[in-house]
Amino acid sequence: MNNNNKMGSDPIPQQQQEIEIEGGGGQLSPSSSGYAGGIGSSSNSNPSSEIESSEIQHGENNSTSNGVVYDSASWVPGKRHDDEVSSTLQAIISFVENGGDCVNFVRAGKHQLLVILTKSVNRCFEKNPKFDMTPLLGGTDVVFSSLIHSFSWNPAAFLHAYTCLPLAYPTRQAAGAILQDVADSGVLFAILMCKHKVVSLVGAQKASLHPDDMLLLANFVLSSESFRTSESFSPICLPRYNPMAFLYAYVHFLDVETYLMLLTTSSDAFFHLKDCRIRIEMVLLKSNVLSEVQMSLLEGGLYVEDLPIDPSPRSGYLSPHLGHHRPGTESPSRCRDANPGIGGPAGLWHFIYRSINLDQYVSSEFSSPINSSHQQKRLYRAYQKLYASMHDKGTGPHKTQFRRDENYVLLCWITQDFELYAAFDPLADKALAIKTCNRVCQWVRDVENDIFLLGASPFSW
Amino acid sequence: MGLSSTTTSSESVRLCVFDLRRGQHEGQELDKILFFFPADCPFSTQLSVIGLSEGLITFTRIFSPEAACEVIEAERHSHVFYQAEPDIWMVMIVEKNKEAEAMWRIDALQKVLSEVHSLFVMFHGSVRALLEKDPGGGLVRVHLHSFIMDYLSDFFVGKKLHLPSFRDCLKERGTIQMLTVSREVAIGVQSLVKVVESSCAGSTACNSLVLFQDLLVSTTLTPDDTVNLFTYALSRLTPRALSSVTNTWSYLRKGNTASQVATDSIIGNAESALNASRDTSPSRQRHRYHVPRPLQQEKWSKGKDGFLCTDIWGSQNDDLAPATPTVWLKQTGERAYLCVYQKKYLTIILLIPVTSIINGEQGISIVKQQLLENASPKILKVEEKLTRGWGGDNAYHVAGYRYLLFDSDRSISRASPPGKVTTLTKDSLLALNKLREEVDLEKSRTKQDDPSREKDLELCIRVKNNAWVIARVTRGKELYTVLEKANETLLYASDAVEQFSTRNGSADHWLSWWVGSQSNFSNECAHAIDSSTERHTDLCYYVSWLALSKGTVMVLFLWTKRIIVISEA
Predict the structure, then answer these.
(1) Do A321 and B460 touch (CB under 8 A)?
(2) Which residues of B fall within a CB distance of 8 Å from A104?
(3) CATH for B5-166+253-288?
(4) What are the tens digits of pLDDT across the range B528-543?
(5) Is B540 on the interface with A (CB under 8 A)?
(6) Which domain holds residue A88?
(7) CA-CA to B313 of 20 to 30 Å: which in A354, A397, B246, B514?
(8) Looking at A158, A179, A203, which one is the last position of a domain?
């Protein structure tokens, strides 16, 4: 991806268009800028294997209008599929369209094809039917590929929430304070991130940044090697913020994993943003924020093994309908001790907690037995399915779900304030699992100062 | 024949049967089409439907050779595919329409296609066989046309075709509903069956089905054949079907003269369209072939001797007496005469292999005579006992639950009575429909990953309106429940279902069937013991028992499909 204009020179039109397509494609949602969900690697040279993606997000099919396509077959526009398969598929799609209809998906065995054409690309073609998109998409392979890949590992993609790097509350406050300083000086958004996790984030008054846009931004920065080598200034479209306009992003890596993004509407703000960055960097170094970020990265976040037996003095708390205090059962604190190597108490293997008001989620670290990337991917898909089932367009959102199959016991619980997704051993006891979910919620609330970015929220909705 | 009557229905549903082996050359594509509904649809439209379907099948075979296209979901239509025989495909295109409650479960629509095909094969043999008999295709077209149109006539409400929608999600097409009987009655039925089947002269094996009301009491056929005959009996033979006031395919239709007229006109209209338009099959062909229409409505009646009779199959050449119908049995691959005897609400279906009767109708009347002589007292006694024990239409209602329990291995189901299902809110039904769709998909995925494996799944969802919709799938048995009034916790809801499945899944429910298939049972035990060493041994959910004439065998099932205790008493 060669669209990073160094040293603040004006972006050339070709690059603007390129990004417009990318951003515009994401108008419906960020995922559509990938045009399809992931099979992990779109650089696969065998086109049929792209279609053969075997994991299908069935429940999500209805949400194609939402542009959200998880882990389904990918069809990357601009990619040349000069074979029978692509022409057959094109013929089928246009055939159905001639009949005044529009293909959503085709199911054959465990395979499923998904077809989406985003509106803005349509608009582009309406303006000029001979419009050739291929050169515009050239070079975006890496970004698309990485975005598609994130649909097979990054919960942000289906949760529409972002996650924070765990940090002591004062440390995050310190980072936020200096970001707030620059935001007041005409910067639209100031974002400090470490890998895919947010360290701190500040927006100018009334400006709000959608988690989907943050996913796109982080993916854009992390997938392009050139950002890492020097400071960059690049036009970018954030489709949730404004699908028809550009912002300019100043990006600078403070260390190998931590980077600062300053967004502005002005195309000639490079030097101002550079000054801001220098100020921020100085403060961050002085206040040890960067080294604490490194520490946190090493230590990781929440481990299921650490789930407190008696999370807080308020342990008597019982949730409205997940919990059901049955007479004769033992008290919550009598549960089996955390057993390293087989997950947390009651067979808890993993969880994701999404705070609805904060638009943030926290996901426990993978621990045994979810060790291999294969197992992690499988769990990810199970979560996706669970999410899709809970948020069914026609009948959802549901309130609670308990699902047991040969791989997991999955529990999902949605309230006005949060959504909890938890995975247990398939043999887990139902009553204990429910109790454990309550404890997870309590635990998250007890540590929310450290795992979430609180207050001064840029989200105005 | 009202000419305008087809246009409304043709908009929302299309159904076609085609053969991929035919019409390979350009210009001959029309030859592929064996059936198309509505028949007055322009050829260009018919061809485009079949062209698209064929394209999809060919395309999806590239990467899914073993299971080609199942469904195309488009914005406004669902295209449902069913491969009835090798290269013989049935495709149904239904329009989605939220206002008209046209929301479907793909699996349920596929079952409609598979049902009409199974019934067709039972009466006429396979489509391929008919094509081989008459390679021009005229024979099979005429047969398919009258058969499918008669089948569809049951789905018409006025002029509109009402296919199974989300409101039917607590029903399972292609399954048998059994009557629960006490052990004493079961033994009585068994001895009746022995007497009935021995009415056939000589050593040939007859088969029989016994129904009481609309429920099966006993069968000696395989599940496949039983399902077909049971389905047919319910639609045309049982006392309820004979009185012809209700309809078995759909909750909605109330048979009345108006709809009958409409249906007739649709069929008639379609027929005339068929005849007028197809050069290759002039109306002469209809007369050239004698085409029995087993699904024609109101064609069966009860004779003086208690046997049901019909003139559907025409009459003997030299005799005016109507010919006895015959059906193909899958089990034997042979034709069998279909004799139906009815005593009040008891229906006995006797299947006599055609090869065992040398002198045609004369031989059959001897069998009938013998049946009356030998079995009359037993029939009377069994009928009395069953009537005494009959709990009415709501016998299997379980207060507080709306459920569907079904065993896919044996094709048996039991569900809340339709009248009780209608008390559920639309939201609950939609949620359950969605849940069933999810389970359908999971099942088919598991099957494709490893055909020998069966899905074990438990799914409880508390939906927006606070109802619980619950699915449990284990060892080929599926239980779907809606609990609307349970305003309680997950544990409460799942305990409730636990109690329910222990009670209703227990064997007196499946008893009659198992008595009929004892040999299967011992295989099952062996299989279950083999796998009992697997790790799910600490879960014990499912208790079941089986009564044999020797005594009682106690079987304790694990919910996760292993038997752990077998004791004989």
Answers:
(1) no
(2) 73-75
(3) 3.30.450.30
(4) 333 333 333 322 222 2
(5) no
(6) 6-158
(7) B246
(8) A158
